[in-house]
Amino acid sequence: MSKESRAGQITVAWTKTRYNAALALLERPSVLGYLLMLPAAFVIFLFVAYPFAWGVWMSLTNKQIGMPWSQVKFTGLQNYVDLVMNDGVFWTTAWNSFVYTGIATVIKWILGIWLAVLLNRMVRFQRTVRAAVLLPWIVPTVLSTIAFLWIFDPDFSVINWTIRRFYSWMGWGYVKGPLWLGDPTLALASVTFVNIWRGTPFYAISFLAGLQTINPDLYEAAAIDGASGWQRFWYVTLPGIKPITVVVLVFSIIVTFADFQIVYVLTRGGPANSTHLFATYAYQVAMVGSRLGLGAAVSLFMFPILALMIIYQLIYLRREQA
Amino acid sequence: MAKTSTKRGITRRDFVRMAGIATGMAAAGAGIEGILASRRAPAFAQERSLHFLLWKNFSPPADVEILRQGEEWGKQSKVNVKIEQINANDLPARSAAAIESRQGPDIIQFFHNWQNQYADALVDVTDICTALESKYGGYIDYAKTHAMLDGRFNAIPHTVVPNIYVVRASYMKAAGTTNWPKTWEELRREGKKWKAKGHPIGQTVGHTFGDAVDFTYPYLWSFGVAERDEKGRVIIAGKQALEALKFFKALWDDAMDPSGAGWDDSSNNRAFLSGAITATNNAPSIYLTASNQVILDEKGAPLVNDILHVPNPAGPAGVFHYHYSQQLAIPKYSKNVETAKEFLRWLMDKDQLTKYLRRAQAYHAAALKAYLKDAMWDMFPALKPFRDHILEGRHVGWKGSADANAARVVQNYVLIDMLANVATGKMVPEESLKWAEGQLKSIYGG
After folding, report:
1. Is CATH 3.40.190.10 the right assignment for the domain spanning B48-162+323-392?
2. Are B385 and B309 in contact (CB under 8 A)?
3. Is this prediction's ipTM beyond 0.85?
4. Sequential DSSP letters for B196-256
């Protein structure tokens, strides 16, 4: 055998060995799993982790719009301290965010379950009604909120028009009607209402999916044991949809807490800052008022709260899976 | 040593030689063969482009005119001009995003002194502005102050939107008011009667770019209130400010429409045109809408015949107005700085500016003083009072400079919220003043 052909044989054998080794490596779930995850990890890094890290860095600087990076200074926690110690709007914003999220979540939860139970019992026109219920969730938020801008207009509001007509009909004279977006308390209530209107279908459809996984035998057994309607709801329905309730609640709290569009379209945080949420105030400070560092700090105040919600959800889901 | 060929960019000599071959071949009728022989694609003059961002005007014919002017200049200069118009309340965020990402429009319109927040990112246009000044006899003071920082123009003062009181004469008369009140105290007294008749004074103190600023600043100035002194120190917490706030609460409760706290810039227009209010501080847009759309009043007569334009009432320190300026800036990131300058020079030329202002139906005045004598004001006699009070304005941030922080005070609605806090009953005047002082100090420092 010539020297060349022997060398060729060795090369072929070596290539085959390497190929087999690579295949064997791919057979291992730990390796293949990570490989398949790589594209998703890359996307998450690019669109979530990197902007987040950038935001954290920015919140620790005096960065302003248009300021050259050579002039940007690291200021440590100064922005956070300024917000907590010197910014009156920040505390109003924090309070509004908790009130908005708390009230909207509780009401959406109650209405969502109620609607889901009704839809679950409905026999006729089930598909049509389900599609109709989803409409507020499907319509782009800005579009539906512009409609609410008219509904809440003090002079041209359909609600105030009805109230005025009613007063006139009763002979009680003229009344302007509630100042939906002009009174601080009513303005916060109005934006919360729009959030509830928009978010309830999501709860209802999710709970409906949960209801349909409950074994009907459980209801039969409960009925045979003499359980009332309320008892069946409390001891069968609620525990049956508990897993989906946790997921829906956590997801909804995160989205509601970080809400922006409804407030921006209806009030831009006014009147007198009574409807600012973390997202709208961060936008005002950073994008309109050009203080990017301070704005990043405002938005990052949301992070610990939202992170806790996500951690809770993950722990709960793992426990359920176990 | 063997000679090796290296990759390199095309030199000027190569370019001239190949262009010569291609042109010669083409001229000799060689056509496509000639181009092939030159071994290069034929060179065409690259089309220039320009992206201009501005607001959607409250006087729609102005939009038609600016689009026409862009098209006309584009054709004659062989530039593809793209004019983009958005809601004024969205301009700050849109321009901020463009400035920070260093891409976007080549020319951006700014209101008040917004652009001073990113003066370093804007092209110095002092050469254009000084040339215009010497040609047309100078700018209106506050328009010039808003466009300058540290001795240089970072934007070209374009127009000024004047704001005075727009009044329904018949509503005033029906309530027994014969003359427009000369002081805030008189306005409160007479306004109380108007409100009792169901037609109060309409005024926004909401989060909106124009009317809220146009009222708040001159109202406070008329009480002798300044947010800071000449050295930039916050001096708002004085007895004048407290007096202004206490009086505003009384004025609001007695004479104003309480829904104003939630209004934007278009709300008072709608309220006025629908007969809900007697008076409001506004630009000429209410009159123009009533006129252009031939809106009729309750008696079926043209509403324009019932509209008066009158100055702001006086406070203890006198009569003051605020007319917001509009200026045009070129961001440094633009790849078309020279083209943009060329366009702006043309746009500011008398022929174009006169047409623009007239097509806008005197909705705005030019930032150059010479235009106050323009025949336009005789064409729209009902709007002459706007011109007559146009020089009475001041810049934002007064007594200090109109710097970046003064713009942030406007953008964060600090002084507007100071009034809104007391109007809505959220705070008593003392609390609101303390709150505003804190907000101002957090912006100005100190």
Report:
1. yes
2. yes
3. no
4. HTT--EE---SS-SSHHHHHHHHHHHHTT--SB-TT--B---SHHHHHHHHHHHHHHHHHB
pLDDT in tens, B311-355: 999 999 999 999 999 999 999 999 999 999 999 999 999 999 999
Q: Is any Cβ of chain B less than 8 angstroms from the Cβ of A229?
A: no
Residue of A nearest to B409 (CA): A289
Interface mutation vs chain A, best among B274, B442, B443, most A CBs within 10 Å: B442
Statement: A79-321 belongs to CATH 3.90.1150.10: no
Phi, psi of B5 (to 5 degrees): -85, 140
Does the fold of domain B164-322+413-444 match that of domain B48-162+323-392? yes
What ranges do the domains of chain A cover?
79-321
Q: What tokens appear for B67 in the block?
A: 């689009």
- This prediction has a pTM of 0.86
Please write the tens of the pLDDT for every residue from B37-78. Answer: 555 555 555 578 999 999 999 999 999 999 999 999 999 999
Q: Which of residues 285-324 of B touch A (CB under 8 A)?
A: none
The answer to whether A290 faces chain B, any CB pair under 8 Å, is: yes
Task: Mark yes or no for CB contact B206/A66 under 8 Å.
Answer: no
Indicate the CATH number of B164-322+413-444 among 3.30.450.40, 1.20.58.480, 3.40.30.10, 3.40.190.10: 3.40.190.10
